[in-house]
Amino acid sequence: MASKTLYSDPRLKKRDDFEDILEERRNSSDLRYALRCYTPLLYKGITPCKASMLKTTVLKSDHVHYVIQQLSKEMGESPDIIKEEAAEILEEMAQSLQLGIIRFFAFTLSKAFKKLFQRVKVNEEGIQRLQQAIQEHPVVLLPSHRSYIDFLMLSYILYTYDLSLPVIASGMDFLGMKIVGEMLRMSGAFFMRRSFGGDKLYWAVFSEYVKTMLRIGYAPVEFFLEGTRSRTCKSLTPKLGLLNIVTEPFFKGEVFDVSLVPISISYERVLEESLYAHELLGVPKPKETTSGLLKARKMLGDDFGSIHVYFGHPVSLRSLTQKKINRSNFNLVPRHIPRKPTEDIQAFVNNTGYRMVRLQQENMVVSPWVLIATILMQDLPGVDSDYLIEKTAWLRSLALLFGAFLDWPDHVPTSKVVASSVALHHNIVRNVNGRVVLIDEEKPNDNSSDDLVFKKAVTVLMCASYRNQIMHVFIRPALVAAAIHTACNARKEEVFSYFNFLRELFANEFIFTPGNAVQDFEDGCYLLVKCDAVQILKQDFVVTETGQSTISFLVAMLRPFLEGYQVVCKYLSEEVIEGFTEMQYVPAVRTFAVKMIISGSLKSYDVLSSDMQKNCLAALLRLNVLRKTKLADQITIKINQAAVTRLVDALDGKTPVQKAALARL
Amino acid sequence: MPEVLNGVCMQPFHYTQHGSSMASSSNISELQQNAKERLRIISGHLQKPANREQLCVSANECKAEAADRSLGKTGTIPKRRQDILKWNGWGYNDSKFMFNKKGQAEFTGKRYRLSGMVLPALREWFEKTFGASLEHKTPARSALNPSDVPPPILNEGFVQDLKSTAIPFSCETEDRIFRAHGHCLHEVFALREGKFERVPDLVVWPNCHKDVEKIVEMACKHNICVMPFGGGTSVSNAVECPSDEKRTILSLDTSQMNRILWIDEKNLTAHVEAGIVGQDLERLLNESGYCTGHEPDSMEFSTLGGWVATRASGMKKNIYGNIEDLVVHIRMVTPRGVIEKSCQGPRMSTGPDIYHFIMGSEGTLGVVTEVTIKIRPIPEYQKYGSVVFPNFDQGVACLREVAKQRCAPASIRLMDNEQFQFGHALKPQVSSIFTSFLDGLKKFYITKFKGFDPNQLCVATLLFEGDREKVLQHEKQVYDIAAKFGGLAAGEDNGQRGYMLTFVIAYLRDLGMDYYVIGESFETSVPWDRVLDLCSNVKERIIRECKDKGVQFPPLSTCRVTQTYDAGACVYFYFAFNYRGLSDPIHVYDQIEHAAREEILANGGSLSHHHGVGKLRKHWLQETISDVGLGMLRSVKEYVDPNNIFGNRNLL
User: Does the annotation list B234 as a binding residue?
Assistant: First the structure.
C-alpha cells in the first residue's frame, strides 16, 4: 500500500533543512529588496493574459454562457441581465495582481516581520521543487491555515525567491476593510462568498474563474483546504469545494496534470492566540476592519518567536488518480455543462483532501513549547520546574520516535530550552517559586464564579492550542493505547474494534483518511511497539513494564477529548427532553459545563471550546445518536436516548462496542 | 467527358506507376495505345518535363509486367509476394531510403515522386530529432533463417481434399512467413532479428468465390483454422497467428481474386472480387473513366476485402465517403454458408444492417469474396494546396469552421509543428538557385514579415477535386475561411509534399530501424471540442512515458488531424524514439503505446478510427462498446462460426 510508506515509518521521512530568510533582511536594505528585479520562471504552457482579459475569457466561456442560458429559461429573465449580474459577481471577486503593490508589501512586511518574529525559516529545497513544478504543470498551493499572516507570508516568500506569485482564494470578510481589501486584491487575492449554496450563477462564475486561471497557467492557485483559520491549531477536516474545482480540469483532460503542493506553516507563537481562545468561548470574532488592523500594531512590540514554512513535495494529481478514476466517464456529456461529481469522484476528492492535510501535518514543525504545553495540560494548573524539564526531555525522545518534526536547538540544555519557551509564552505561563504554572492562578481553587471560570478557560484553551499542535503525531498510538486501556481484553480484534469506535467518534476532531482504519491502527500499533510500550504476542497486546507510563501518558492526552464528549452526552441525557435547535446547543452545553466545573465534578476545560462542542455534535449526528428534523421552517435536533446511553457506556468501557470489520485485519 | 480532361487525373498524386498492363485479355495493344496517348496529354498539361520522363519509364515497366500477365498473372501483387515486396519491411523491394556514400539520404527505385532523389536535409533532421548517428547501425539479418520457422502442422485429410480441388496452395517457408504478420512494429522487428512462435501452416490462393466456398467447407469438415489474408498491411496484430492454435492454420490469400466482374454505368456501381488491391482497382476503373475515390494511405497494397473487414477510411472520404458509405453489396462465405442481401437497393429498412456485422468483423466470421462498390466518373480537375497557420490551435479552429460550413475539400489535413519540420526534411535537393531563393523569400515572409514562430507554425494540406470552375470557387472559399484564422496560403507544392509524406513514412521506418530508431503510428477519432486537449495530452504522455521507461533520447511525438467530420475529427499520431541503451525496446515500445491509448480514451478519443481492433486493442473493446455490446458480437460469432474456424481471434 502506497500510504504505508507515506505515513507509517517516520524513519523514512527525510526532511529538508531550513534557511532563515529574515537574516538577509536584517543585513541589507529593505527598499532595494522591494525594488529589485523580479523575473519568475513561468509555466511552460502559459497563455499570456492580463487580469482584465481573464474576466472577459470567463464571461465568454461556454460554461458561464450555458448557465446563463439555463437560468434565463428558468427565470424568464433576459440573458443580458443575467450576464450583467455575472459581470458584477466577477468584478466583486476578481484579483488584479500588480507588481507595484507586491513591492509595497515586500517593503512593509519586511519591516513588520522583523519586528514580530525572530526568524522566518523556509526549506529551500522545497522552493526548488516548487520552481520546477511551476514550470511543468499548473500548480495548486495548499498551505495550512493558522493565522491571517499565512497568505501574506507565503506571497512574501515566493517574491523573495523569485517565484510566480499566487492568486489566493480569500473570504469576503476582507473586502469589508477599506483600502486593505483592495490592496489584498492587487496582491493577488480573489474573494469568495462564504456560502453560495444553490446560487448557480455564482458557482459557475466562481468555478470558471478559478479553472481558467489554472488552465492557462495564469499563476499558481492558492487556497486553504481547511476553509478557515483553525482556532484550535489542530488541522481542520478538509473542505472540498475548491479542491473539486481545481481537480476538474484534469478529469476533463483540459490539462495534462496538476501539481498539488502541501505547505506547512508553523508558528512558535500564534499572533491570534488570545483572540482564538476568546472566540472559542463565545466572544464573537472582531470584524475585519482597517482600524482594527491599525490597532493591532501594538503587537509589534511583542516577540512571536520563529515561523517555519515547509514546502512539501508536489503531488501529481495524475498519479493520485491512477487506477482510481476512469476519466472516460467524462466523455458522454459536453465538458462545459456543469454536473454533480459522481460518487467515485467525490470519494476521490475527499480522500485527496485528507491526504493533503495529512501531508501538511507531517511537516508541521513542533516547538519545545508544544511539548511543555502537552505536559502542563495533564497537570493543571502547574508542575515543578524540575519535573517539567525531566518530563520534557522524555516527551521529546518519544515524539522524535513517533516522527515529530521537532525544532529543538542544538547544544542547549533542556532546562534552558524550557526556560526560554516559558519566557516566550509569558502570557500563558509563569515560573513561580520553582513551579511552572498558568497565569492568573492566584486563587488556584476558587472556581466560584462564571467570570473566573471564563478567565481561566482563556488561558487553558491557549495552552491547549499548543498541545493540539502535536496531537497528529500521537493520535494513532494514543487511540490504540486508549483501546488497550479500555477494551475488555487485550485481544487484537477487541482492541481494534474499540480503536475503530474511537476513531469514528473523533473523525471530526482529528484527521483520519476515510476508509483507512486498518492502516491507522497498524500505524498506531507499530509506534507503540517501536517505543517498547507494548508487545504483540500472537493476537494479544501485552503492555511492558516500562511501557505503562507511556500508555498512561497517551491516555491522559486523550482524556480531555473523551471527557468533553462525555459531558455533551451527559448534557443530552440530563437536560434535553425532546430536542433542541442548533442555535441553543452551544450556549446550553457551555452553561452546563461551567456548572459542572463550578461544582467540581469536571476538571477539564476543553469542553468549553465551541470547536469541540461542534465537532461532538457533528459526530453524534453522523453516528445517528442525534437526528435533524425540519419542523415548521426550523431545524430541530432530536435525540435517540437509547443510543446516547449506549454511547456513554461504550465510552466508559462498560459494554463492548460493535464489532468492526475484522476480516481486514 | 472529354478524353483530355479525363487524363488529368490519370496521374495519381503519389506514384507514377501507371499503364495498361493490367487490362483484361484481348485488346492490350489498343489500350496501351490509348494509355500512351493519354499520358502524353497529361504531361503536356502538367508542364513538368520531369514527369514525362518518369511516365515513360513506368510505361516501359508495364510492358514487362504485361508479359508476366500473359503467363496467367493478373494484378500488381503476384502469388509469390516476395518477388516484388520486401520480406522484412514495408513496400516494394526496389524502393527504400538509405544513406549514400556521401552520407546523404536518398530514396531508391523509380516508383515514387521521391524516387531517385537526394534529400539533403533528412540526415540532419534524423540525427537531431532522435539523437541517432550513422555510426550506430542495427542492420536487419540479410535472409530468413528457415530453422527459425516452426514446421507446418498439416491436417492430412484437409491437404488430400485440397489437392483434389486443384486450387493452388503452398507450404513453403517463405510463403508461410510472408503471411504470418502485418506491419506492427513488433512484427517487423521479429522479421529483422527475432522469430515468430506460430506461422500459418499452409497458404492457399482461391481464384474465385466458388473456390472460397469449397475451402471453407473443407476447413469445417476437417476442423482447421482459416485466416483470411488480403494485403497484409494490418497494424493491429490482426494477421498474427494465435500462438496456442493447435489446429492447422490455413492462410487464405485473396490476392488472385482480383477482377472487376462488371461495371454498371447506369447505377454507377462496380462488382469486384474482394482480393483486388487499391491501386489496381483504381487503375482498372480509370481505364473506363471511373474511380471509387477510396484512397486509404495503404492503397498500394491493401485490398477491397480488407477495407470491408476493417471498416477502412480513405483520404478523400469528404467527397466519396468511407467504406461503409461506398459499399452497396457484400458477399461473404462463412462456416454457416454465404451471407448477402437479395437486392442492391441504395438504402433499406430491414432491421439492423447485416453488412454492419461484416464491416469490421476483421476476419472472424468469414471471407468477403465479392463487393459491389459505388463508382464515380473521374473528376475533371485536381488541385493541391496548403495553408500555414501561426499555431496548431488556430489550425484546428480553421478545420472546425470548414467542417461546420461543410465545405471540406476532398482532403484536408493539419500537421503540427514537428510534422511540418519533418516534411521539410523530406524536401529534395532543389535544382535551381531560383527555387531556393524563392524558398528563402517565402520563409522570410512568413517568419519575419508575418511574425510566425517557426517552432509554432503548422501547415494544413489540401486536395480539391471536381469541375475546374467549382474547384477554384471551392478553393477560394476555403482560403477565405483560413484567412480568418490567420492562415496564409502556402502553395501547391507544400500540399503535395504533405501527402507524399504519408506514402513514404512507412519506408522511413525501415530506415530508422537500421539506426536504432523504432516507431509507429496510431489514430483515433474525437469530438471537436476535445481535439486540442487530446493532441497535447497524448503527445505529452508519450514523452513522459519514454522518460519513465528509461528511453535515453527525447522521442518524436507528433500528430496531425487527418479527417474532419460534422461532429469531430480523426487524429493521427506518429511516435518514434532512439532505443540505444534499452535491453528490450519492443517491450518498452508496447508499454508506451499502451499508455498512449489509455490517454486517448481518457481524453474522449475512440479506440480506433480506421486501423481496427485486431488483437492489439482487444483489451479495450469491452469498455468501448459495453458488456451488452460485446455480448451481441459474441452471439453473432457463436451462431455464424460455432467451431471458431475463422480463428484469428481478432476483436472478441
Answer: yes
Q: Pick the residue from chain B with its C-alpha nearest to A325.
A: B602
B537 closest CB neighbour out of A256, A330, A331:
A256
Report the sign of the C-alpha dihedral through residues A205, A211, A216, A218, in that order: positive
Q: Is pLDDT of B84 > 70?
A: yes
* Contact by Cβ (8 Å): A268, A305: yes
Of A300-314, B8-22, B550-564, B565-579, least confident by mean pLDDT is B8-22
- Rounded average pLDDT over B507-529: 95
Which residue in chain B is spatially nearest to A333 when comparing CA positions?
B604
The predicted structure's pLDDT at residue A275 = 87
Question: Closest partner residue to B529 among A45, A256, A335, by Cβ?
Answer: A335
Task: State the pairing for strand pair B411-415/B260-264.
Answer: unpaired
Check CB contact of A329 with chain B, cutoff 8 Å: no
> What ipTM was reported for this prediction?
0.86
CB contact under 8 A, A253 and B604: yes
Q: Which residues contact residue A174 at a Cβ distance below 8 angstroms, ignoring those fewer than 6 apart?
A: A180, A181, A184, A189, A191, A288
Is some CB atom of chain B closer than 8 A to the CB atom of A19?
no
Q: Determine the average pLDDT of the residues in A16-45.
A: 87
Beta carbon pairs, A and B, within 8 Å: 25
Residue A89: its pLDDT value, please?
92
Average confidence (pLDDT) over B286-307: 95
- Mean pLDDT to the nearest integer, B380-394: 95
Q: All 3 cell numbers of residue A536?
A: 504483540
Contact B159, B224 (CB under 8 A): no
Q: Among A193-202, A206-215, B501-510, B595-604, which stretch is predicted with the lowest mean pLDDT? A: A193-202
Quote the pLDDT of residue B30: 53
Mean pLDDT estimate for chain B: 87
Helices (H), B83-132: 122-130
- Average pLDDT over every residue of B258-284: 96
Interchain contact, B602 vs A256, CB within 8 Å? no
Q: Which of A372, A256, A363 is nearest to A317 (CA)?
A: A256
CB B446 within 8 A of CB B498: no
> How confident is the prediction for chain A on average, in pLDDT?
87
CA distance A291 to A293: 5
Report which secondary-structure segment, H or E, holds A168. strand A167-171
Q: What is the DSSP letter of A53?
A: H
Confirm whether B572 is a catalytic residue. yes
A587 in B contact zone (CB under 8 Å): no
AA identity, residue B320: Y
Report CB contact under 8 Å: A334, B533: no
Cβ pair B256, B203 in contact under 8 A: no
**Which amino acid type is present at position A473?**
V
Tell me the nearest-neighbour CA distance from B530 into chain A, angstroms: 8
The pTM (predicted TM-score) of the whole model is: 0.88
- A335 contacts in chain B (CB < 8 Å): 529-530
Q: Which of B80, B68, B78 is nearest to B28 (CA)?
A: B68
The helix-helix angle for A200-215 and A62-75 (nearest 10°) equals: 170
- Check if A176 contacts B (Cβ < 8 Å): no
pLDDT at B224 over 80: yes
Show the cell assigned to A377: 495540560
Distances (CA, A) of A223 to A171, A188, B203: 10, 12, 68
The model's pLDDT over B593-636, given as tens digits with 9 standing for 90+, comes to: 999 999 999 999 999 999 999 999 999 999 999 999 999 999 99
Peptide bond into A381 cis (omega under 30): yes
Residue of A nearest to B604 (CA): A331
